[in-house]
Amino acid sequence: MSKYNPLILRARKTLLMAGVCVGLVFGTAAAAQEASQQQQTELEFMEQVQQAQERIHEIQLQLGSIQRDTLDNEPALLEEIEALEGQAIARMEEEGHDPRGILERLEGLQEEFQAAEDSEQQQAVANEFQEEQMRLQEAQQVLAMDEDFLSAQEEVEENVLLAMQERHPETQELLDELNSIQEDMIALQRQYQSQQ
């Protein structure tokens, strides 16, 4: 008679295979649960980001409306803005750029995009629009280094903001909420990245 009973060997193999199968099932279940939790976290993150972006858009629309109303009723502010724009254009032209030509071309491209008959034409117009925007940004870099212009720009922005707050007291509350949401989004993004 053999040292090992074939029935016992078969039983041991079956138990061993059952143990391996149980391990695989539990391992797979644990991995699936972890993946499910990660998907849930990602879904929650995306929902929070979407809600924040929607609220930011709403606030920006409100602030834009407040700004338009303020400027419509404050002609002196419009004159300040126009003077600043004139200063900006003159400064860019001094450095050899053509901001007026670029701005006119950008307006023309917007009309061409709307009139385009197919997506291929729209894409060609969009590509040219992007190139013109890059040219404008390059020209605007001159302004970023001009202390006089930056000082004048800051003064005009402060004057516009003060006028908005006087005409519409809710302006500061909207700005505070906007800043708070943006800070929350940065914190949320950091938290999400740390979990990855």
Give a structural overview.
- With 196 residues, the chain is mainly alpha-helical.
- Helices cover 90% and strands 0% of the residues.
- The chain has helices at 6-73, 75-94, 99-115, 119-144, 147-167, 170-194.
- Helix 1 (6-73) crosses helix 5 (147-167), helix 1 packs antiparallel against helix 6 (170-194) and helix 3 (99-115) packs antiparallel against helix 4 (119-144).
- The protein is extended and about 60 Å long.
- The protein starts with 5 loop residues before the first helix and ends with a helix.
- 3% of the residues are buried.
Provide the descriptors you would attach to this structure in a database record.
single chain, mainly alpha, 2 domains, 90% helix, 0% strand, extended, disordered N terminus
Determine the structural class based on helices, strands and strand pairing: mainly alpha
* Quaternary class: single chain
> What would the principal axes of the Cα set say about the shape?
extended
The total tally of domains equals 2
Output the radius of gyration: 31 Å
Poorly predicted regions are 1-5, 18-30
Most strands sheet: none
Distance between the termini: 60 Å
